[in-house]
Batch of 4 targets.
Target 1
Amino acid sequence: MTKPLLQVRNLTTRFGHGLGSVTAVNNVSFDVNAGETVAIVGESGSGKSITALSILRLVPEPPGKIVGGEILFDGLDLTKLPEEEMRAIRGNRIAMIFQEPMTSLNPSLTIGLQIAEPINLHMKMPWQKAYDKAKQLLDRVRMPDAKSRLSSHPHQFSGGMRQRIMIAMALACQPKLIIADEPTTALDVTVQAQILELLKELTRETGSSLILITHDLGVVARYADRVCVMYGGKIIETASAHDLYARPLHPYTRGLMASIPRLDQPPGVRLVPIKGQPPNLAQLPPGCSFNPRCGEVIDRCRRDVPELMHADEKHLHACWTSPHV
Ligand code: ADP
Ligand code: MG
């Protein structure tokens, strides 16, 4: 088998130090193969964005810091790369799409300029050619009337169109990996589906890998090959999207699943939200972080921290009460 494009190994990212410190990403390991879509799913505050920002070395430091682990990308350990080399990777070989495009677009520049600039910079393409490429990219993300829209400013687009612009920018330098952090959370349901379809189609065409971050397990089945479920800064279950849906093993994953609308759900069945609140990372309970909210808790869960265990070769979970080999 060929080596994965990205191997995250025991990644640990902390904010602050001493008593008040929180471990936002706690010993996280996962792989992303070439051309694969891996979803990272979990409630708000579970460490999804900080995992993504750690990969790009964009964690605000201080107060944040990667304190352990490796991020192997194409043979390089990104945790050890000088900032200058990291800058050449960001936006070029790894691109990121954020939740709120307005915060990553410059309101005072035309989008033509904003798409063409990194092409000019990273790919050393002359401006006129970079502009042509920007137009082609807008066509690819199905921006109507792309040519004339190059001279529009960000506020002249709807939220969905702005997210298309972000995708065009992400694709500009033909990255090997795209990280999309809740790319559709701010959009309404119909536009959400269009954007995710577009992302899926374009990554398939270009062969890019995708890390799709979402709090919505509902979108994962359709768009991801594999899933990592995060809770309290840790991956608590990981499997292929198919296996995770067929046999969710961690009570938290089952809770997430019960709280999403399903297409095959008989009408009238009530959705059940997971009781309680996501954990406060500064005051995690002893044992399993999920134990105060778990309906299947046993004594051991309050005492020993479960690490990821194999249920089968490719399905792992961190739960004392679920079957493992
Ligand atoms: P999400 O899964 O919602 O993307 P994040 O990765 O953004 O969660 O955050 C995970 C945790 O990291 C938060 O619950 C918080 O405790 C901590 N954290 C994130 N950003 C900061 C920050 N700038 N300063 C201090 N703590 C932070
Ligand atoms: Mg987030």
Target 2
Amino acid sequence: MDEVRNNWTLDEIKEIYDKPLLELVFEAATAHRKYHNPQEVQVSSLISVKTGGCPEDCAYCPQAARYHTDIKVHKLMKVEEVKARAALAKANGASRMCLGAAWREVRNNRDFDSVLDMVKAVSSLDMEVCCTLGMVSEDQAQKLADAGLYAYNHNIDTSEAFYEDIISTRAYDDRLRTIENVRRAGVTVCSGGIIGMGECTEDRMAMLLTLANMEAHPESVPINALVPVEGTPLAAQPRVAAHELIRMVATARLVMPASVVRLSAGREGMSLSEQALCFMAGANSIFAGDKLLTTPNPDFNDDREMFDLLGLVPGEAFKYDKKEADAGA
Ligand code: SAM
Ligand code: DTB
Ligand code: SF4
């Protein structure tokens, strides 16, 4: 048990998810300690560098142009402003900056050139830079890599079977292809999904199966709880119960023991003890800062207090590279 494997079966994963909750948390906590320092939690922060107006129809997303949501749409931000926001996040303990754009895919135009400049500017602050810009070709991923990109986020979001209930403007295979393009360019992969969209437990497990059976596991796995947004087709979905999020985090930890599991959207409104159980169950990353892309999130001060209370410390940037370097020394 606990070794990094990529030959999981759906039944094995279901069996893990269905264990008595505290047994599951204990097993996940045990695996977590074999691969990670349990006190360390990576702090990532998000900047929505281009908000809204997206041509896709993702049912959960407030940034799809076709839904009437109350977000502040804006064109691509200026490089200097992004750099200043990143520096502020760094001063608040963030070691990774994730730059998000409401694009279906990257196009080879001036906006992409500006994003490459943003990547250079933020990596010059000695932070890990992650981008989430929609679909990318291998060539575009290579340009991002050359600019210093550390990670690319591209969530598979749910199971292949449930995908078409949520998105009709692209296919599951498009997502997998972008992830392969990112891998080929030597950029680390950040990929996970959302729970609470009306999927069944089997869909959640099938999503974990797809991630856990990749040739190389994504280095980071964000687990989002749907933030229901007025105006989107999923606005009336009930909030996910904390115990479901805890199970999901614990199962992700057990099937991808070496990956960083991020407790992502949905922390706003969770109690400290609910979040503590997620950390116990193997979550070792959060998004921090008072806004995710368009929705509220606990602010840096709330999280500092939580870290102090729970005895957690923010992780350093490039820790995994350092580990490899140390092992080789
Ligand atoms: N447009 C790019 C894409 O789709 O890959 C990047 C930005 S998109 C907003 C990034 C991710 O945010 C989605 O894949 C989804 O997992 C997450 N997301 C969007 N809206 C959400 C919501 N209301 N609740 C939880 N997660 C959400
Ligand atoms: C991820 O898995 N979740 C983040 C980030 N990667 C890009 C985005 C969450 C968005 C939540 C809804 C919003 O704020 O618009
Ligand atoms: Fe566009 Fe990404 Fe939102 Fe889908 S999730 S509508 S692709 S911004």
Target 3
Amino acid sequence: MKEKLQQIKEAALSELRAAECDTEALRVRYLGKKGELTAVLRGMGALTPEERPVVGQMANEVRAEIEAALTARVAEEKERALNDQLVREKLDVTMPGNATRMGHQHPLTRAQREMEEIFIGMGFEIAEGPEVEYDYYNFKALNIPENHPARDTQDTFYITDNVLLRSQTSPVQVRVMEKQSPPIRVISPGRVYRSDALDATHSPLFHQMEGLVVDKGITMSDLKGTLETFAKKMFGEETKIRFRPHHFPFTEPSAEVDVSCFVCGGKGCRVCKGEGWIEILGAGMVHPFVLENCGIDPEVYSGFAFGMGLERVTMTRYGIDDIRLFYENDERFLKQF
Ligand code: DAH
């Protein structure tokens, strides 16, 4: 029996030293109720009274040794598992991170926001209108007669006889005046379309920003003050503006407005093509016919309007010499803003 105990001990300890060992199965097999050690103890009845305590003590020692080895092995496995996990989940906080590539607003959007802020600061609100527009709003209500060259299919994308892609943001004036009664103070930025071939200064799609103010007693000097404030904020405090008489069917009188060249200050340079001035918009006093078309009494109210090309203002502001750069999505260009 002593030999049997010795065998059991050696077998168990050697299994516990092996690389692979199912500790729980081992515990059951050696120490469990139906285990080998228990079987030996059950057979103790066959021993002499002298042998019994000796074998009993030995059996206890063997059990204690196996238990100790087992506990040690379990602890060792736990530690190894923990170490493995620590290695696997190691986080090196000194490693360089994955930098997120940040984009930014398109230069046109940026210029538009800047312009909006300037006008909002003067009490304007933003109004929007559809890009697919009725002939009525784009032309007729704006006092543009049937035979006007702007109505030519050469210039305007027609969808049907009376539906078109708006060629200007001016129709928003009409839509606002139909819905709102004075005082009105709105700007309306947005896309416009003309069937022009794409070149350095033309694009079939471009952007305008319309402005409209209608109230009692609005005069040309209000228009001048508003545009001067805008020009100084947009192009710098030194900027001057200049009105040149012009014709637009929806304003009377009408003017084209230039700003003094912010590069040379008016002396003449490459940016202003030696002129000293850069044309940025059209403007005027809202034509009484237009007010009437929108249900506003021109005897009581007067107003001014203006419309400027967003690309033009942005190109002027940043010294960009080709309109196509805005639409090509070339990062080398876009990154500069
Ligand atoms: N709609 C004109 C254009 O596209 C620009 C313009 C001129 C708008 C005078 C106005 C204005 O509101 O009063 O050429």
Target 4
Amino acid sequence: MVFGAFTYIKYTELQSIVRQKNEQDITNVTKIFHDFLVQSETMLQVVGTTVVNPHISKNPKEKTKIFDALQEMNPAVIGFGYLDPQGNLLISNKDLHGKKINALEIKEAKSSFKETLKSQHLVIGRSFFFKPLGQWILPLRKAIHDKNGRVVGVMAIAIINTQKKNLFSGFETELDEDVLLIKNFPTGYYRLFYSNKKGNLDAQKFYGESCPKNTCTSVINQVLGLNHITLQELKNSNKVFSFFSKDIQGRAINGALYYDTKYKVWISVYHYNSAITQEIYKDIALLVLLYIVMMLLFYFLFKSIEKYENAKERDLLFKTTHDLLTNLPNRAFIYENVYHSSKFIMQNGAQIIFIDLDNFKNINDTFGHIFGDKILVIIAKRLQAFFTEIDLVARQGGDEFIIINNSQNKNPQEVIEVIAMPYIVDDIEVRLGASIGVSVYPDDAQDFDTLLSLADIAMYEAKKVKNSYEFFTKEMQEKNRVNIVIEQELRSALQKNEIYMVYQPQIAADGTLHGVEALVRWENEKLGFVSPEEFIPIAEATGLILELGTYITNRSLLEIKKIYAQLGRTFQLSVNVSIVQLMENHFLKNILEVIHNVQFDASLLTLEVTERLPIEELDYVLPLLKSIGAEGISLSLDDFGTGYSSLSILTKLPINELKIDKAFIDELLYSHKDKNLVKTIINIGKNFSMDVLAEGTESEEQVDKLKEYGCDIFQGYYYSKPLKKEDLITFIRSL
Ligand code: C2E
Ligand code: CA
Ligand code: CA
């Protein structure tokens, strides 16, 4: 486009230069030609007048002198002659071997000779081959008149008309363009002279015959057309006109045209376009070169900009679709490539593996986040190495990874093993477990979003066991659905007054009442009775436990305080405290506030915390438990024996009571192993001066056995199920 414009501008510019040059050239040529004719005319007039002078005509020496002078006028002048009005050549400086010559008898000379007789001026005749001289000549004739204006004779000059010698030969003008002189005779347009430097021309055809149609006249017609003028106007204009045409061979030419009114000659000067085109080509070649160089420059500039932009874009895309720590694809990548396009194809049977590292928080807390990050990077590398290109390993965030396992020969157990291999970072060796949930495409779901949520559900199940995997099942989903409803309903349970407390008596070995354990109950209009084992974990996971816990403590203390008053006696009250509650910043402050509000005796309160205390948080937990103890509140370690915490930590914790988990009591009579364990627990408790409570005692045999081993307190259906407060009063009274 730009190039085209350049070329066009260049072309038109060149054209105007060429036009100017043509016009200048024709002006020069015309001037030479015209001057020559004027000079010739004067000479012929002078010579003619002299020749007819009887004195001179009788003096041959004088004659020769004049002839010589005439000859010197122009080297191309070959001969001179004087003719009578009837066309007879009377005098000539050339030896014509006595031949009689009559101009009217030469067909090429006839009409111009007649014209000469009628004209006051010099007249140019047709170019013709003059046999006596054996030359192509161009005749210039001038009528010589007497005092009365009668024609007495005609003076003529013959100019050699060849390419080498012609009327322009005498002038120092180097014509690099073609000059063509044309004149209109009654028989048609004839070429008078053609410079034609480039080659020989067939003079007979070129000068001997009239111009073929559409050659000589076409240029004239073009000029007329272009300038909207008539032929007469053109002739009288005394102006130079530019034209573009074709020569006989069809080659494009451009030139300038001028009509010499005085001598009635068309003068045309022209160039072959090829010359211009060559010029243009040269310029264009340069332009093309320049253009190419420019384009290349632009190309490389744009390329490098594009490369930079692309790189930037790719970089940005990579950054937004990849996890910066591990360089693994992230959720955005999955959304981009799996959800919204099918760049990554899940094959039939593909497993969506959802990995959540176990206790990864400990690693961060113990060794710092940089250390933790290094572990994550190692895990990423291990997973990538383990899986293949047809699989997708992504980091979901935190300590969670997602794998789309297209390789049918890889399984989740192997993933656990891969993660379980020891990590050595900064000379520290650590081991990690992972909980893995798996869903299968397309059996479980067709879309990735759902598959991922199903794998998450399965992972949640695996998390209960830890370092294990679970395949998603319909039951899990059902349970999940129920859990979602539970969560929704639980949010309004307190306001709807659906929550209340029951109390399960704890009986001392001597049969007296030791205390009660407060257990929460929830009766929902939609769900009916919901077990705390179902909704407490949900309350913990959603944080609802904090509000619920405060309600439980407040309500339990209030109710039991009332019962104290009603019965006129006191007993221990055990309240279950979730770890989520315990770890909350204001836990102790809140409890003390409730105690204060209710005016409850802190020494009658026991808080039950499970053995699954976050041992890793010991730095926080231990001072907290000590503070609790310092307030006179007792602590009971619930579900003892089920956790895997080392018994040695017992020595560190300010625990007042151990609650042997129901699972051991169940097996007490049948399992030798459990019997020994229960015995051991009771002994440990004794050694650390703790009370030992057996929960879930359902039979007399169990109670007897436990008493035999030295157990202090018993709780279970054998004595009583958890009771509503009215029933508890009745129960206690009945003791
Ligand atoms: P837990 O603290 O171990 O409570 C003992 C559970 O064993 C109670 O179930 C109780 O009803 C049941 N139980 C007692 N004796 C027997 C028996 O002889 N046989 C059988 N089969 N079961 C017996 P419950 O009330 O359904 O509570 C279940 C769990 O829910 C509790 O276990 C505790 O972890 C949690 N929980 C209950 N109430 C509260 C509460 O107020 N706050 C918190 N944070 N958790 C609670
Ligand atoms: Ca308990
Ligand atoms: Ca328990």
